[in-house]
Amino acid sequence: QAAKAISSPVPVEWYPTLAVVMVSVGLMLTASFF
């Protein structure tokens, strides 16, 4: 359990939120080029 927590600093519950944030940032960066 401890080793897994160290290898994965981000909680599993945050993955959906991080995915949405990454997509939003990617869209904003893409839009900034046009």
Automatic annotation (TrEMBL):
<dbReference type="InterPro" id="IPR007915">
    <property type="entry name" value="TMEM258/Ost5"/>
</dbReference>
<comment type="function">
    <text>Subunit of the oligosaccharyl transferase (OST) complex that catalyzes the initial transfer of a defined glycan (Glc(3)Man(9)GlcNAc(2) in eukaryotes) from the lipid carrier dolichol-pyrophosphate to an asparagine residue within an Asn-X-Ser/Thr consensus motif in nascent polypeptide chains, the first step in protein N-glycosylation. N-glycosylation occurs cotranslationally and the complex associates with the Sec61 complex at the channel-forming translocon complex that mediates protein translocation across the endoplasmic reticulum (ER). All subunits are required for a maximal enzyme activity.</text>
</comment>
<protein>
    <recommendedName>
        <fullName>Dolichyl-diphosphooligosaccharide-protein glycosyltransferase subunit OST5</fullName>
    </recommendedName>
</protein>
<feature type="transmembrane region" description="Helical">
    <location>
        <begin position="14"/>
        <end position="33"/>
    </location>
</feature>
<keyword id="KW-0812">Transmembrane</keyword>
<keyword id="KW-1133">Transmembrane helix</keyword>
<dbReference type="Pfam" id="PF05251">
    <property type="entry name" value="Ost5"/>
</dbReference>
<dbReference type="GO" id="GO:0008250">
    <property type="term" value="C:oligosaccharyltransferase complex"/>
</dbReference>
<keyword id="KW-0472">Membrane</keyword>
<comment type="similarity">
    <text>Belongs to the OST5 family.</text>
</comment>
<dbReference type="GO" id="GO:0006487">
    <property type="term" value="P:protein N-linked glycosylation"/>
</dbReference>
<comment type="subunit">
    <text>Component of the oligosaccharyltransferase (OST) complex.</text>
</comment>
